[in-house]
C-alpha cells in the first residue's frame, strides 16, 4: 500500500508541476518580489513601490524568461539550452548583447581569480 501511495504522490507532484506551467500569471507564486523592489528603488522608484507595480513587473519578467527559454530550446540542441543559444537570440539587441558579454567576461575573470586564490592558498598550506 505504501508503494502505491508514493506512486500517487509522485503523480500528484508531476500534475502540479504541469499545472503550474498553465497557471495564469496572476495566480503564480511571486518569486522575485524582493529583488524587483530593490531594483525599482535603485532605478529611482520609491523605497516601497506599490505592490501592483512590483507584481506587474514580475509578471513581465517571468513572461520574458519563459519566452526566451522556449526560443532557446528551439534554437540549439533539442532539450538543452546553452549560453550560445541565448547570445544568438539577443544578438540584434546591442544593449542586451553587450551586457551579456560583460557579465560573461566578469564571470571568467572571477573564475580565474578564484582559481589563482585557491592555488596560492593550497601552496601556502603545504
Automatic annotation (TrEMBL):
<comment type="function">
    <text>The TFIID basal transcription factor complex plays a major role in the initiation of RNA polymerase II (Pol II)-dependent transcription. TFIID recognizes and binds promoters via its subunit TBP, a TATA-box-binding protein, and promotes assembly of the pre-initiation complex (PIC). The TFIID complex consists of TBP and TBP-associated factors (TAFs), including TAF1, TAF2, TAF3, TAF4, TAF5, TAF6, TAF7, TAF8, TAF9, TAF10, TAF11, TAF12 and TAF13. TAF13, together with TAF11 and TBP, play key roles during promoter binding by the TFIID and TFIIA transcription factor complexes.</text>
</comment>
<keyword id="KW-0805">Transcription regulation</keyword>
<dbReference type="GO" id="GO:0005634">
    <property type="term" value="C:nucleus"/>
</dbReference>
<protein>
    <recommendedName>
        <fullName>Transcription initiation factor TFIID subunit 13</fullName>
    </recommendedName>
</protein>
<dbReference type="InterPro" id="IPR009072">
    <property type="entry name" value="Histone-fold"/>
</dbReference>
<comment type="subunit">
    <text>Component of the TFIID basal transcription factor complex, composed of TATA-box-binding protein TBP, and a number of TBP-associated factors (TAFs), including TAF1, TAF2, TAF3, TAF4, TAF5, TAF6, TAF7, TAF8, TAF9, TAF10, TAF11, TAF12 and TAF13. Interacts with TBP, and more strongly with TAF10 and TAF11.</text>
</comment>
<comment type="similarity">
    <text>Belongs to the TAF13 family.</text>
</comment>
<dbReference type="InterPro" id="IPR003195">
    <property type="entry name" value="TFIID_TAF13"/>
</dbReference>
<keyword id="KW-0804">Transcription</keyword>
<keyword id="KW-0539">Nucleus</keyword>
<feature type="compositionally biased region" description="Basic and acidic residues">
    <location>
        <begin position="1"/>
        <end position="11"/>
    </location>
</feature>
<feature type="region of interest" description="Disordered">
    <location>
        <begin position="1"/>
        <end position="26"/>
    </location>
</feature>
<dbReference type="Pfam" id="PF02269">
    <property type="entry name" value="TFIID-18kDa"/>
</dbReference>
<feature type="compositionally biased region" description="Acidic residues">
    <location>
        <begin position="12"/>
        <end position="23"/>
    </location>
</feature>
Amino acid at each position: 500500500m505504501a508503494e502505491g501511495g508514493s506512486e500517487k504522490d509522485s503523480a500528484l507532484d508531476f500534475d502540479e508541476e504541469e499545472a503550474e506551467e498553465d497557471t495564469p500569471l496572476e495566480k503564480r507564486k511571486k518569486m522575485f518580489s524582493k529583488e524587483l523592489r530593490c531594483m525599482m528603488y535603485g532605478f529611482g522608484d520609491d523605497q516601497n513601490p506599490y505592490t501592483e507595480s512590483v507584481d506587474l513587473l514580475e509578471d513581465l519578467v517571468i513572461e520574458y524568461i519563459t519566452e526566451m527559454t522556449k526560443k532557446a530550446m528551439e534554437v540549439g540542441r533539442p532539450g538543452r539550452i546553452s549560453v550560445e543559444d541565448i547570445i544568438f537570440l539577443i544578438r540584434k539587441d546591442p544593449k542586451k548583447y553587450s551586457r551579456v558579454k560583460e557579465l560573461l567576461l566578469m564571470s571568467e575573470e572571477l573564475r580565474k581569480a578564484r582559481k589563482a586564490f585557491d592555488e596560492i592558498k593550497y601552496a601556502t598550506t603545504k
